[in-house]
Amino acid sequence: MTTETLIIARLGSGGDGIADTPAGPVYVPFTLPGETVAVARVKNHGTVMSMSVASPERITPACVHFGPDGKNGTCGGCTLQHAGDALYHDFKRSLVVNALKSKGLTPDVAPLVTAAPGQRRRVTFTARKTEKGMLLGFNQAGSHHIVSIEHCPIASDGIVSRLDAIRQVAAAIATSAEPFRVTVLETLTGLDLAFEGVKKVGTRERHAVTESVLALRGIARVTSDGEILIEPMKPEIEFGGVRVSPPSGGFTQATKPAEEAMADLVLAALGKAKRVADLFAGSGTFALRIARQAKVHAVEGEEKAIKALDHAARNTQGLKPVTIERRDLFRRPLMASELKVYDAVVFDPPRAGAEDQCKELARSGVKTIVAVSCNPISLARDLAILTAAGYRIRLVTPIDQFLWSAHVEAVAVLEK
């Protein structure tokens, strides 16, 4: 380890400050461009020891758990609370712009659709039983140390106000001192708690969870590795006015405002399309909204998610016909011959993207394609496949829903 003074030149894709040195770039967390810092350096990683020049874009973090000066440790949930809005928003947009440029794509990229504190309805905590009680929080960046939290500025009030209740249920289900995870989803009917990694949940723990939940209010369901332990109320969320009961631990957009912004862009792009395929449809985030204006064929590989979509569609009046298909689109993408019956296609894959599916779309005659992505790198690769086949990118819109992190969503609209 060496100590040296560095000038931060720019932000890296992970949100760390980067200093250029003769030996190559050095990554320094919690720093901003233009800052001069003394760091303890190990290879290409620097830890701030002191700062002699601070950026005018530096602001006071909103959370006491953030950064090297956090009172209870460095929470690993956020990386950019110290950056002012202008710098932060430009950084988020640049993640999309630079990824597209890496593939030779220079379409119009709209300003970032911004996020605000208190919007996260889905949060994943780490928990562990200790001699002093139940530890609930986030893993410190780069370690297994759990930073206990009493407040979280990104999470909704419906989650933050129930942290003690979540701890009580976690204490009831814990079988050892080993850490485990709990994904908390705030739904219209109460909190949905999905525990993962709790070993050997037995009769005693099941009874304890039941007693805890019945004594508390506002908890709709508790599951352990997908098994329902208690469900006082069926958890429900709403997709464009259609109520859906999502599967335990299933994918949902982390914030309602970001979901609505993406849905608005998708619906506007589809225009008067009469037949639409929604690929990687999940529990119906887009399909059930699209069904207000067009026939939809929803394709999803996860059985519980597609069943939730189907149940919601069958029990909602006023929708156009919705057909479903359970299909692993990574192994068996919809072929060009199957796609020819659709006026438009929407796809929203996991972070890996939809490379094989885009190769089939590229061979199809579909007029309008809307790509929704949580990974600018895989999005750029997929869009390059489509543009090489004659599609034009009309607009790309970056959307922030993971506030103060280095993650960004994007919606791209293409036409043949």
Topology, element by element:
Blueprint (H helix, E strand, L loop, with lengths): L1 E6 L2 E2 L5 E5 L2 E5 L7 E7 L2 E9 L31 H17 L20 E9 L2 E7 L6 E3 L8 H4 L2 H11 L6 E8 L2 E7 L6 H13 L3 E6 L2 E4 L6 E3 L2 E3 L11 H15 L4 E5 L7 H4 L4 E6 L2 H12 L7 E5 L9 H4 L4 E4 L7 H9 L4 E6 L2 H13 L3 E8 L9 E7 L1
Parallel strand pairs: 11-12, 16-17, 16-19, 17-18, 19-20
Antiparallel strand pairs: 1-5, 2-3, 3-4, 5-6, 7-8, 7-10, 8-9, 10-11, 12-13, 14-15, 20-22, 21-22
Helix pairs in contact: 1-10, 3-4, 9-10
List keywords for this structure.
4Fe-4S; single chain; 7-stranded mixed sheet; EC 2.1.1.-; iron; 25% helix; 4 iron, 4 sulfur cluster binding; iron-sulfur; 416 residues; alpha+beta
Question: Brief description of this entry?
Answer:
Belongs to the class I-like SAM-binding methyltransferase superfamily. RNA M5U methyltransferase family. The chain has 416 residues and is α+β, with helices and mostly antiparallel strands.
Neighbour order of strands in the largest sheet: 9-8-7-10-11-12-13
Radius of gyration: 23 Å
List low-confidence stretches: none
User: What portion of residues is helical?
Assistant: 10-25%
Mean residue pLDDT: 95
Distance between the termini: 55 Å
Largest sheet: 7 strands, mixed
- Gross geometry: flat
Q: Beta-strand percentage?
A: 25-35%
The structural class is: alpha+beta
User: What's the tally of helices?
Assistant: 10
Q: What is the number of E strands?
A: 22
